[in-house]
């Protein structure tokens, strides 16, 4: 049976890929280095590593958003380096798609339910009636405020 250290080394070699061919980034991660401690070249290398298998350097993106919202750069970039996310397997992707389809069907079924259709029809008829009353008031030269629109119902009528 292969040793655990040997298995870890083989796995690490597979993980290096194009983004970290010499294993420096994985070493920095093991050492617990902070992004703020890296040189500009090391930051670029870390970013290439995070994005090398189609992922996103989300930790860097979050830090840059913090900087945009007036958080000092040294504070925003003070985070530990992390390993990149592995892309989903075809099975995981298919499962995610099925879950999204299920959620969309659930939303459509709720929207198209007889109760919801009846509710929308009642709201439509109510809005039409208010429109008719407002038009009549306008034609008589009266204030239309007596007949508030549905989104104005909480407002005071004077």
Overview of this structure, please?
The termini are far apart. The model has no long low-confidence stretch (mean pLDDT 85). The relative contact order is 0.07. The chain has two domains: 4-76, no CATH class; 90-150, no CATH class. With 158 residues, it is mostly helical. It has helices spanning 4-16, 24-31, 40-51, 58-68, 73-76, 90-111, 114-139. 61% of the residues lie in helices and 0% in strands.
In short:
The chain has 158 residues and is mostly helical. The chain has helices spanning 4-16, 24-31, 40-51, 58-68, 73-76, 90-111, 114-139.
Quickly list its features.
mainly alpha; 7 helices
Q: How big a fraction of the residues is strand? A: under 5%
The helix-strand sequence is: HHHHHHH
Fraction of residues in helix: 55-70%
Radius of gyration: 30 Å
Number of domains: 2
Number of strands: 0
Q: Give the low-pLDDT segments.
A: none
Q: What sort of overall outline do the alpha carbons produce when their principal axes are compared?
A: elongated
Q: What structural class is derived from the secondary structure elements?
A: mainly alpha
**Overall average pLDDT:** 85
* Through-space gap between termini: 86 Å
Largest sheet report:
none
Number of helical runs?
7
């Amino acid at each position: 049976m292969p040793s655990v250290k040997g298995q870890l080394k083989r796995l690490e070699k597979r993980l290096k890929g194009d983004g970290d061919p010499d294993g420096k980034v994985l070493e920095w991660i093991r050492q617990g280095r902070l992004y703020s401690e890296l040189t500009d070249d090391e930051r670029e290398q870390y970013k290439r590593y995070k994005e090398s298998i189609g992922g996103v350097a989300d930790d860097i993106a979050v830090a840059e958003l913090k900087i945009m919202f007036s958080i000092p750069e040294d504070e925003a970039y003070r985070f530990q380096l992390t390993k990149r996310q592995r892309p989903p397997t075809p099975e995981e992707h298919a499962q995610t798609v099925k879950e999204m389809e299920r959620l969309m069907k659930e939303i459509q079924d709720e929207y198209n339910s007889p109760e919801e259709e009846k509710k929308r029809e009642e709201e439509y008829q109510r809005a039409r009636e208010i429109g008719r009353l407002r038009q009549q008031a306008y034609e008589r030269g009266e204030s239309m405020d007596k007949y508030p629109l549905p989104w104005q119902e909480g407002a005071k009528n004077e």
